[in-house]
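FW: tagging you since you asked about this chain on Friday. Here's the raw sequence from the shared folder, copied in full. Didn't touch anything.
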Amino acid sequence: MSMYGRDPWGGPLEINTADSATDDDRSRNLQDFDRAALSRPLDETQQSWLLGPTEQKKKKYVDLGCIIVSRKIFVWTVGTLLVSALLAGFITLIVKTVPRHHHSHAPPDNYTLALHKALMFFNAQKSGRLPKHNNVSWRGNSCLNDGKSTSSSSSITKDLVGGYYDAGDAIKFHFPASFAMTMLSWSVIEYSAKYEAAGELNHVKDIIKWGADYFLKTFNHTADSISVMISQVGKGDTSGGSTSENDHYCWMRPEDIDYDRPVSQCSSCSDLAAEMAAALASASIVFKDNKAYSQKLVHGAKTLFRFSREQRGRYSAAWLYYATGNSSYLQLATTTGIARHAGAFWGILDNSVLSWDNKLAGAALLLSRLRLFLSPGYPYEEMLRTFHNQTSITMCSFLPVFTSFNRTKGGLIQLNHGRPQPLQYIANAAFLATLFSDYLDAADTPGWYCGPNFFSTDVLREFAKTQIDYILGKNPRKMSYIVGFGGWKWRDSKKPNPNTLVGAMVAGPDKHDGFHDVKTNYNYTEPTLAGNAGLVAALVALSGEKSTGIDKNTIFSAVPPMFPTPPPPPAPWKP
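HL: got it, structure written out here
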């Protein structure tokens, strides 16, 4: 009988059970086979099969489980790792024990230092119930009954707690406050990277939101149309020797006010409505990442703008176009009749001076931005080019080579022709000049023309620097006009100030560079919300590295492509 097994080398393995040989015979036969096999040379593998324990050679390989490596390579590798570890430890020990000189970052420039303080002014001007971390130790909750008094001169009774006090008094003027929030939002949209570098981005956004939240209280922001809005809370009146309780006669801390504060409303106030619409629209771009809140601001801006349109007053739709991307607002902003009615092209020098009461220069620059970066073409190009030219003329008027405006001996440009409180206009102009310079740089344009003469963007930046440097202390009196770089006295008291309004930019010097540190003379010493907003915008624009530049794209987030998408290519031809 035979059985066949599987030979692992490929052939059958036959086992003959009929073999009757004994075990001794098989043993002798195997020994004969071994001697015969040993008569021919064996390779190394074959020899390893025959070697006994005492004859086994030393292994040349190391089995690591997953791989087999040469023993020599294994020894070298382990040795190299040990030596490297010892060397690294030795170097680390030397580095830690040898004394080192710590190289700190370059100190922040003066514009950044002043920016920190200028923003603190807004914390001190907050009205209402303050957040826990307002960082102004002497400012507490104040005027918590605003709008709730039944003796108010208006028929409206609603919650008007919050917002900002305008200046040295406790009145809340909504028109200049709206301008202030618009300026802050504009500066954040353009220079968010600089705010971030200064560590102030969240701070300035909190300031803007505090103002925007209050504005939403001043009209029915959930409605699509309104017929009335709140224009002012509080009253100042000392005429005719009046002794009635109001915010000018009762010179006290707002925390101590306990008298009724009147609320003023208006039904024909297109300027206020349009400016507040601009404030909400620009803020909606600042908070575009918070979609629900941004849309809430946009809706309020639309409602206010519709209200302003019904009054047919002076307004600009530029910010609403950027906030919504709706071309109807761009059509309004570039309508020839509206721009001419507003006085944009009248050639009046004062119309080129940006202030809380005149936004023409700002609107022209905003529309110039659209032309520089998007160039929408027909039917907008002609009017956008006109705005761009007007902006160029405004920038030319700032240069000392021209005599559009006088300057003091100390170099301060007289944008308000020597009248009191000049610094707010100068700060705004410094912001516009720096911003236009950065626009041109971002558009790879080295400068602009003033008539036949070409000027580089550096000239504009230098103008802005000289004006802000004057405010910071580079002036004939060697004094800063920002609290924190100097100090001011308490109203009618010769004693030191109990509270310092850090960051407040005062009204400024006269046309002879003179200044009287007298609290009773607001033409010299009174700071304002609108003035500080322009200061903040100018400081952040000049701060840090020039190479940081502007954010070209954020302002266009809601703007759709200016040209239709080209059609897809035709399908391949088939016979």
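FW: The mean pLDDT is 84.
HL: agreed, and The chain has 17 helices and nine strands.
FW: great, closing this out.
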